[in-house]
Design brief:
- The complex is a heterodimer of chains A (147) and B (398).
- Chain A is of the alpha+beta class and 147 residues long.
- In chain A, 48% of the residues lie in helices and 17% in strands.
- Chain A has one domain: Sufe protein. Chain: A (Alpha-Beta Complex), CATH 3.90.1010.10.
- Chain A has helices spanning 3-15, 64-77, 82-96, 103-106, 119-143, and strands spanning 29-34, 41-49, 52-61.
- The relative contact order of chain A is 0.19.
- The model of chain A has no long low-confidence stretch (mean pLDDT 91).
- Chain B is built from 13 helices and 15 strands.
- Chain B has 2 domains: 3-16 and 287-397, Aspartate Aminotransferase, domain 1, CATH 3.90.1150.10; 26-285, Type I PLP-dependent aspartate aminotransferase-like (Major domain) (Aspartate Aminotransferase, domain 2, 3-Layer(aba) Sandwich).
- The chains are: A alpha+beta (147), B alpha/beta (398).
- The interface between A and B is medium-sized, with 15 and 14 residues.
Chain lengths: 147, 398
Amino acid sequence: MDQNIRRTIILDNYEHPFNRGIPQSNDYIKHNSNNVSCIDNLDLYIKIKDNIIEDIKFEGEACVISISSTSIMIQNLIGKSIPEALDIIKNYQNMINEEPYNEEKLKDAIVYNDIYKQPSRKKCATLSINGIEEVLKEYLKKEEPKN
Amino acid sequence: MNREDFPMLKDDIIYFDNGATTLKPYQVKEAIIEYYDHYTANAHRGDYAISAKVDNIYEGTRHKIKELINANEDSEIVFTSGSTQSMNYIIFGFFAHKLQKDDEVLITVSEHASNILPWFVIAKQIGIKVKYIELDENYNVTIENVKKAITPKTKVISLAHITNVIGDIRPIKEISELAHQKNIYMVVDAAQSIAHKKIDVTDWNIDFLVASAHKMYGPTGIGFLYGKFNLLEETIPQNYGGGMNAMFTKEGYYELREVPTRFEAGTPNIEGVIGFNAAIEYINNIGISKIEKYEHELKTYLVEELKKLDFVEIYNPNTIGTTVAFNLKGVFAQDTAIYLDKYHICVRAGSHCAKILSDALKINNTCRISLSFYNNKEEIDLLINVLKNSKNIWKEIL
């Protein structure tokens, strides 16, 4: 990927992140993702209805990689069913960990396909995504007995 | 000064994270290698020459620490793994038994986690109250604010001599004098100060003090706690086993050894103590007042130069210590640190183990530069140049 395009996408999502802010309504699941080894600290707000992710917002203080990756990935996840979202997340995690993944599912998130070169930033790139994954899996666990 | 003694500096590195740990002069490494190559033996165990040599250096290091902080007796120095273990030892070994429900402990929001969390734990266990001395507008502790915070229930004041985020220096002698007028124990965390300023536990009338070797050019995993002898006699050992008992029977009767040996169960960190010994000798050879004077000049220069950059925000321009907390306006601290790392400039980004300070600073994270005597003006000039070019920060780190 061209380095200029990569930088532009990351910076655009850092300076004008998608859906940054605290939701007004109380039908969001709140999850705090923080990285004890560095200093990123983000609150995630996830709204799920009928197993579909209706919305994700986030707020907090974090580095350029954490903020931009959150902004890019929540755009990929909104509107998806939980299994679809978990599949996208899995592909994203595989990319970060240098394992096989499907590029098409990740869209702009492929800007992090070289993050493995900076091991200390892998955590930044997965901070909120792992948090979202946790919330979705937790949600499925709670919902299962009802079905 | 003395840069030639530090092998790390030959690696084209600018090390500004001395508050986290200091680099080690080769003398420290050589002392440790000498022990492993020529007189490996346990301490206090053998009747042979090399074991006696270990004992001599081990106890000699205790004496050097006693001299360094001007304690009354060698036996007032207990070896630990470092400041954190020392704080825990004091709080769980002494204060957990001494304090009662509703007694108050005074700290500040800029203390290190190791001077906060153990107090929280005994607050839960025995119902003491942890209270905070208010900081002034420069984040300093003033005598007036200490007076305001003291109540008839106050039993302990526990403060860092120099804090690890802001680097402000507390008027420990005056606070201690006030404390003792009111029968309050004075505990001092000297981790950030001992390599930079003269400490005098006798003149300042300190009850307990802690420090780590690795922040004073020595190895990691070794440090000490100082306690007045009569207070150490009342301290309950936290570890039991070899080396600390005088005798025991199968019926369960036991007698412990004297202070401080009873606090040093198990084979001690001998290589650590030997490295620590070399580190203290190293500091003594330069002279702490010479170090203090030089570092003060350097810090003043750094602040002056940083102030010239209008895109840099300094959070503690008026403090006296060797630490500067700053941010590039509009750039997250960690991103600044990663940018500087491209130029082999090591600074710390974060909340620096003082997480509750963020409320007072109104900012969660900062970049921290903490200086040492081996830093110099050329390094600061280089830093300033790199910061001047930080318009390119995203090009460089993305």
